[in-house]
């Protein structure tokens, strides 16, 4: 089991104005036998200034999940700081602050303990300084409200008074720091303020596109409509006549595998955005569309259907599902389809770069500063240490901004132009040139015995793999995709088989909030409800029966070799069926499930474990004129202990609405290799007035250590709504979006 | 709209001579002179004119309820704009919050001076030519207009004119505003006959 | 030259009269609180006030904006203390925050015309402002909170 190491840092200058005092970093230290991180780096960084100001580096990107209002509070609480004397400093992609990749719903679960150790370490140094000043034992002193007090004498000294003296003291070992007892921890776990609220509501919060540098130009890029396409012919005569346009620059053509490389195309660099946009509109380009020009979503869907009707690569296997199906009293089968989806953050990608011979400096709304740093360095032929990434606020990420292709574009153009360049993606660009959620068709066959109990279960999945984005060869979903909601799906069924069937990729596939969990949860949770309907069972009872009794699901029981378990050990985060059952029971109780069904209210249920958190959703729908309406949603989540209860609640509220967009509207399709959708008119997202009038969020804590929060709310939403729609209409829709793709208007 | 071709390619097509979409032709008013019976001629002129009245570019802003429509299939306007008490939207969602005095190609937003809905009493969508004819002639439902003023509105009004120049990607109303105006003029001159209210739309 | 009156200050701009107000605000004047998110008046992130009416700056040409009173989020209040801004902070409405300046400008226009809106009024006036993070329930609550304050 890894430990921590506390190191002294003297990087005062990096915090811009921090005064005197001392600074600590805390890093994870691998235990003997564990693989050592080749670049062990601090994971948290706290500075106490001589003026008393406590600066805490937030080493994760802020994209609405409230991380800046969460992790720093953990430090502040251990330290005993007053929150109004704390400032949160965003970490750069700097080796000092550790890897800052923000995805996978793992910021809190990875960092919360090192945050506590850092805060406790700083506290012990301040206390030691006070003890030395007063000549009393440190053990009797108390640190709270930004000061150290001696309860016996009533004397106190502020953190500011002690900081310089503390700076001279030895750094404590992590084993010696005493973490606060639970009774003393009154802030973490409660609803905490949104520290950036005032900045957001006044327009002062700086997002990627808001960065301004002297002499900066703005670029808008015409990218190939089909991934892997290239410019065949370019006529920029009209473009160069547009006032404000400085230059037209050819971007390097994309080579496979796509990785995080820019897509290529033609950049129009101008004095300001309007000139760049007009300039781009005046370009005349013939494209060579490349090898994926035949990608057509309608025929591709047929191919996926054919794929799941034949055996695939077995990845989860217990008993003999084929035999179980062949000998079953009854077989129920269904095929489900989820289209490509687009993350569509409200802020389209934008980045600013400045390059000279030796350095590149970037400002970008990136979820992965080190990833961006590495890609920019590679593209410019620099060392990563020569690249500085400033992380701005992100106007939404949802996975799109993990991929630094847009950052590399800015760096390349800045080098070409010799002045700072901002690359601005339009909404059309973001919709047409994304890293899409993976389209999937899934076939489920269940064999029932004479009593209606499921005794065989075969699940076939055809979905292009994110792996293709990285190696260009993957011809089907990889096992990593099954770690998300298939390998950790408890099934009290003796014969289970899961197979991965062929599916080629023809667009960039990336991760979208909760990733493959969306597809797997939609298929599995709808299917279980279908079995219930076919056998006259209550869907909640059916679900609990299929999940089986409370227990820990071992890899052996699941019929798999290994469960990567979102990077956590099974010891720390077992697949706890009891926690899954509990959220089902809680949400159905709160929703008045039995009474609702008896009264004829159309309700649907779904439950899913993802990112180590257990979530169940009940949706209630009704007919509103010619369309169904989702009136009310209950969501119960068990993410274990939380830091900022208000941000956690807001994440689950938001996940319901995000999931609702996918359930009702979202569909990205291709024709002739090019994406058909462009803007919110043809890729609609839920609007005010469409959201459920009441969203009831219940947060449970069924564990010792935190699970994920940002993503787990999403997967159960679409199937719960699909199941409710079935209850409403009696007709089962097995494809998203449930209301059909938006009708086009000429 | 689902359109796989990025705007800069579309512009190229337009520049090369694709142009705006063209509408159906409208029969010239003079060609109806061949109908000897004055009443029949009047009805025939109105029938031709009602191709314009019921065309999506016109009928979309003459809805029978509180929702403007858009597109050739009369879809409910997205974003879900509503009529409002003065036919020009509600706070923060006024028609003019988004629609300017001219079409904006860069934003794909149509526009014309004083963009707004026709009042409810002038609803045409889903109505028959006979019903519309009766509305147009009734001062209580036509904004207190004389037939001469009806002609002026049809032939000269800037918002009405938009129907024939709706911008790229939108099918214009049939013919031209002048031809439409001439049909209305001729219809008025032949006694402004109305088809029966119950006659079904073609 | 086009003169814009923004938040009480005059700016003389040598700019294309067809340029959308959004780009003049962000690129020429340097007020970045008004956001670009769609460019087609579909999302409301660019909402500003023009003579008190909420309009979408991504489509309003400078020729229309010239000479009129333009208010952006930066000018909505002196110290971020407009009742809506305060309610937004108290209820922790924002998640990523990107859409919120547009949301607040639309909500301000709504409350200026209708100080005690119903949920249906809120639906009709705010449905043009998109939020991908899903903060609609809190936006609604914040508008009601300010309206309650008005009632008392």
Give the structure's gist in a few sentences.
The complex is a heterotrimer of chains A (746), B (202) and C (152). Chain B has 202 residues and is mainly alpha-helical.
| Strand and helix order of chain B | HHHEEEEHHHHH
Averaged pLDDT of chain B: 90
Strand neighbour order, sheet with most strands of chain A: 11-12-9-19-16-17-18
Neighbour order of strands in the largest sheet of chain B: 1-2
The CATH superfamily of the largest domain in chain A appears as Aldehyde oxidase/xanthine dehydrogenase, molybdopterin binding domain
| Largest beta-sheet characterization of chain B | 2 strands, antiparallel
Summed up, the helix count of chain B is 8
Largest interface: A-C, 66 and 60 residues
Distance between the termini of chain A: 61 Å
Judging from the principal axes of the Cα atoms, what is the shape of chain A?
A: globular
The main β sheet of chain A shows up as: 7 strands, mixed
Description:
In chain A, α1 runs parallel beside α2 (about 105-135), α2 (about 105-135) packs across α3 (about 160-165) and α9 (about 370-380) packs across α10. Chain A has about 750 residues and is of the alpha+beta class. In chain A, about 60% of the residues are buried. Chain A has 3 domains: about 5-200, Aldehyde oxidase/xanthine dehydrogenase, molybdopterin binding domain (Aldehyde Oxidoreductase, domain 4); about 210-290 and about 350-425, Aldehyde Oxidoreductase, domain 4 (2-Layer Sandwich), CATH 3.30.365.10; about 295-340 and about 435-730, Aldehyde oxidase/xanthine dehydrogenase, molybdopterin binding domain (Aldehyde Oxidoreductase, domain 4, 2-Layer Sandwich). Chain A has a 7-stranded mixed beta sheet with strand order 11-12-9-19-16-17-18, sandwiched between helices. Chain B is mainly alpha-helical and about 200 residues long. Chain B has a domain at about 20-70 and about 115-190. Chain B is built from 8 helices and 4 strands, in the order αααββββααααα. Chain B has a two-stranded antiparallel ribbon. In chain B, strands 3-4 form a two-stranded antiparallel sheet. Chain C has about 150 residues and is an alpha+beta fold. Chain C is built from 7 helices and 5 strands. Chain C has helices spanning about 20-30, 60-65, 75, 85-90, 100-115, 120-125, 135-150, and strands spanning about 1-5, 10-15, 45-50, 55, 70. In chain C, α5 (about 100-115) crosses α6. Chain C starts with a strand and ends with a helix. The model of chain C has no long low-confidence stretch (mean pLDDT about 95). Chains in contact: A-B, A-C, B-C. At the A-C interface, α4, α6 and α19 of A face α1, α4, α5, α6 and α7 of C.
